[in-house]
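Please, is this right?
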Amino acid sequence: MTFKQVLKTAFLHISLLKFISKTDFSKVIAILLGATVLLAIPTTLQVTDIFRDVQADSQEIAQTIPDFTIVDDQLQASDDAEGFIYQTDSIIFTFDPQGKRTPNDVAADVTGSTIAVGLLKDQLIIYLPSSGLSDSLLDSNQLDFDYNEPALRNLNGTAIREALANQSIPWLIKIVIFIVALYPTFLSLVVTLIMGTCIATIYTKLKMLPFSFFENLKMLIVSAALPCLISVLAQLFLPSFDRSTFILFASLFLFTQGVKHTPKVDSYH
């Protein structure tokens, strides 16, 4: 079968699915990679929305920060500037020029998915929500920056407000988010398909159909193309949509429809 015929089988002629078992695996892999790209789109949009919310909250917080400078590696504000804690939906911000709060105090502010940021007397503290991703990439969900670091020596209130004034998220960030989303999306889809292939193989053995595990895998990947597309559309309107479960059961249903008229093993003897 040509790749065009494989696509038609996936979306229009599922009754021809049994012929996918003899199709070159490279054409089936192309379907798998295409499905991965499609499934990464909702994740990218959701993460971008989170970035946008954090950016908006950061701009809101920036307007409350009084003018300050870094002098002798310490935060210096005007005499009448008092420390405060400001909380939004995504960020808990601490401004503490008097040195009344410690990094542990800032860490204690972290709840759920909120980010804790502290401009303390002698360092900048950032605490991210604890997750496997942040811990694996950063070894810790705590980021400490002393004011003697070159990038922070000229830090001041005006610089923060100007840096956060840009309303848009750079396209480079969106591309990076999309690329990062591809890996877990691919793994999740492969796990779902392998699980489905195990079930499909049990089904074909019980029905005495002449398909191996590898052939069932190829057919199930093609069967998953339409459910993947539907799940992407569903997630655009219902972000909490359980796409893995839907893809698994919808693919298995299409698989059974595609192989049900296949001659049984006994008919070859």
In short: The chain has two domains: 3-45+172-268, 68-155. The longest helix spans residues 25-62. The beta strands are 68-71, 74-77, 84-87, 91-95, 115-119, 123-127, 142-146. The radius of gyration is 27 Å.
